[in-house]
Design brief:
single chain, twelve-stranded antiparallel barrel, globular
Length: 202
């Protein structure tokens, strides 16, 4: 079911201490109920980082990254990642060499729908579901604002959205999206070049 979605806000939350500490984002949608993004989940498997969205009428979404780089990353990254909504796998592709934000966008496919997610800056991003013969599509925009304990994510929706649209957009609050930005793409490119050079010296 698709519906108009009122603007709402996610704010940082944390619970517990030490090994039992849980952190992420939490808010309330008038149409879909409570939303919690736990980012990351407590690590139980080596070399794996996972963030999860759950709550209200939204389908649960999980974003998982595997690899040695997860031992030093604060959040799951765009590399070696798996995204699920419910039990369904979401296909993800991107052009790492794209010159503009939209060219670097992450392309998603879920339930027969096509999506595109791109970064406005390091704290803000946009997810669009493409229009088809039956639906004009939807845009979910997340804008990061504030500093420290006053940080927030303001969520606005243009068009009629389904629960999966919001789950796909909001789970990325728990993902390191830096590689989608211009600066992040440059740093990632230099890192790859450095890695290739180092391997060539052996």
């Amino acid at each position: 079911m698709h519906s108009t979605v009122s603007p709402f806000t996610l704010r940082p939350w944390r619970e517990g201490k030490g090994y039992d500490r849980r952190v992420g984002w939490r808010g309330e949608s008038a149409e879909f109920g409570g939303v919690t993004v736990e980012a990351p989940l407590r690590q139980t498997t080596p070399q794996m980082a996972v963030s999860e969205l759950r709550g209200g009428l939204l389908p649960t979404a999980s974003y998982e990254t595997r690899g040695v780089h997860t031992d030093v990353a604060r959040l799951p990254t765009l590399n070696r990642a798996t995204l699920r909504v419910g039990d369904a796998l979401v296909s993800m592709t991107r052009n790492r060499l794209g010159a503009t934000a939209r060219q670097r966008a992450l392309h998603l496919r879920y339930g027969g729908d096509r999506y595109r997610l791109w970064a406005r800056d390091r704290r803000s991003w946009v997810l669009t579901r493409e229009a088809d013969d039956e639906d004009p599509g939807v845009t979910v925009a997340i804008r990061g604002a504030g500093r420290g304990s006053r940080r927030r994510l303001d969520v606005t929706v243009s068009g009629r959205a389904g629960g999966a649209d919001l789950s796909l957009a909001l789970v990325f609050a728990g993902v390191d999206r830096a590689a989608l930005t211009r600066g992040g793409a440059v740093r990632a490119g230099l890192s790859r070049v450095g890695g290739f050079w180092a391997e060539s010296q052996y």
